Amino acid sequence: MLKIGLSLAFMLSMATAPLYAQEALTKALQLGAAGVWPEALAQAELEGPIARDIVEWQRLRAGQGTAAEYEDFLRRRADWPGMPLLHEKGEKALAETTDAGRIIAYFAGRSPETGAGSVALIGAFLTTDQKDAALAEARRAWVNLPFAPEDEAAMLLLFPEMPVERHEQRLERLLWDGDLTGAKRMLGRVGKDWQALAAAMIALGEQADGVDGLIAAVPEQFKDHPGLAHARFDWRMRKDLYDESIDLILSRSPDAAGLGRPEVWAERRALLARRLLRQGEGEKAYQLAASHGLQPGGGASAYADLEFLAGFIALRRLDNPERALQHFVHLEGSVQTDISRSRALYWKGRALEAAGKGQEALAAFTTAASMQTAYYGQLAAEHLGLPLDKGLLDDSAPPDWRNADFVSSSVLEAGLLLIRAGDRTLAKRFLLHLAESQPKQGLEQLADMALRVGEPHIALLIAKQAAERGFILPRAYYPAPEMIPTDGLPVSRALALAISRRESEFDPRAQSHAGARGLMQVMPATGEKVAKRLSVAFKTADLTEDPAKNVTLGSAYLAEMVEEFGPSVALVASGYNAGPGRPRRWIEEFGDPRRADVDIVDWVEMIPFNETRTYVMRVSESLVIYRARLKGQVGPVSLRAELKGG
């Protein structure tokens, strides 16, 4: 009863608080954005201690607090989001104190993350006669941490006899990281051989004149340095010298040592391998993808992407299922989410099937088909002739969220206050952080709360977080908000929902870096053009301030894609994401996916842009489920037909 009472009291306060109090946090956030912190805190105080702490949290994140204020907040609100940044900002404030015990206590159980913090801790260790601890921290920090020029000077005052090998290690790390300004500051601290290597790498990174001479001047012991090779590779790539770039990366790839840091090469390795694949050079593409030198683990996706690509090329271009199978097995062992696991298992099944191992293939397809929220899980289900999982139609509500374990959390209260104040971006930050600590039922209840307060965007993000942990919450994972109407659309509601889910995740105020806006991520120029055709008034602000108009314009533009490409979701979604000229070109290059003799799964994998390829997969997989949910019934999975349009 206590939980319910607290929750009801808070929700009642949200609905009945005086107008001045309801507006207080909104005004406080505006003042904080302008950097007027005393007035911002005073305004927030009108709405209560949590509102004040929201503004205090922002002030401290802006680096505007004292060491005591950081210590106090980190102690009181340790469960709030963004603690790493607060710790980092607190380090800089702490550097201004001379209390050695206080500094050492601040770093209890954690290492400094900034040069300023490290210098402060080293000074505290030296003051308390802990010289070994000071030396260990100096060696760690000098090689690994970013330092402002003044912090570098302070470090070298504390340790003027820093071993030259530490300077060399720091310089090498800065060069690999592309911090050329920091690298230049290190030149006077290393010997002439390292200076020559660094000068060549810096010139390559800056695209400076005279690089050939600087490369020639690199001493013999460093001519084969992997960092220099990567700098030359980067220079060639930025000059669009792709053939020369491929030759260089292949020459470095017989072992990981030749690459130095294989992960730094990985993204463009995949790009070049796909380029070779499109050019019909399957064997060379395979060699490039397979010789990546990466190890599984660490959460990086590069290993998984390159293992998949190597397996795909081996199976579909080189007709070598045994070789492909090795890569798909590696992929399966390196991933956790349903999207990635179903991809590994589907292609493992394809390779086993091609190798004549039918029973093992069936097992792989069956496991993949259990993951029907994912593109390749649906393809596996279709391959086996299975119906869509009835559980994906489940709309049952969880137990009342107002009696959830999280209801007394200050993180929840902050999120709800921010929703009321109109700052949904910040509200999302708090509520998603709260979701990270919830079990399955807590996730269900939190997503249900978001739906009930009119935030399908936040509900979907909570459901996505749940899906990454293996919990599918159909009602929140596939919301159908009233912003996407049931009638009057020039395309099916299922398609409009699938596109909006991918484009904005149902955030009516979303804006992309490219300038696309609103629910259906309409570009202003496109919106103006479509509005003129429809004879409706238009201003750019409509795209984020008027969800109905955004859907009107976005669905009309989507209808243009359907009119040109027919019902093929592969083409329609590609056109909506990348512009209609791109799928027109890909039809010429890879064949028309609507034709019976074109393998639609291969066609999607050949899309050159990672974003568009992923976009087609995510839109099509959710379209299948939206169609079933809107009808209220399941049938055989028919993803290939959706992709091909027939």
Automatic annotation (TrEMBL):
InterPro entries linked: Lysozyme-like_dom_sf, Lytic_TGlycosylase_superhlx_U, Transglyc_AS, Transglycosylase_SLT_dom_1
Cellular component GO terms held in the UniProt record: membrane; periplasmic space
GO molecular function: hydrolase activity, hydrolyzing O-glycosyl compounds; peptidoglycan lytic transglycosylase activity
Residues forming coiled coils: none
Pfam assignment, any one: SLT
The UniProt record lists the keyword Signal: yes
Source organism superkingdom: Bacteria
Family of this protein: Belongs to the transglycosylase Slt family. Belongs to the virb1 family.
PANTHER family for this protein: MEMBRANE-BOUND LYTIC MUREIN TRANSGLYCOSYLASE C (PTHR37423:SF2), SOLUBLE LYTIC MUREIN TRANSGLYCOSYLASE-RELATED (PTHR37423)
Protein name (record): Lytic transglycosylase
Source organism of the structure: Neogemmobacter tilapiae
Lineage of origin: Bacteria, Pseudomonadati, Pseudomonadota, Alphaproteobacteria, Rhodobacterales
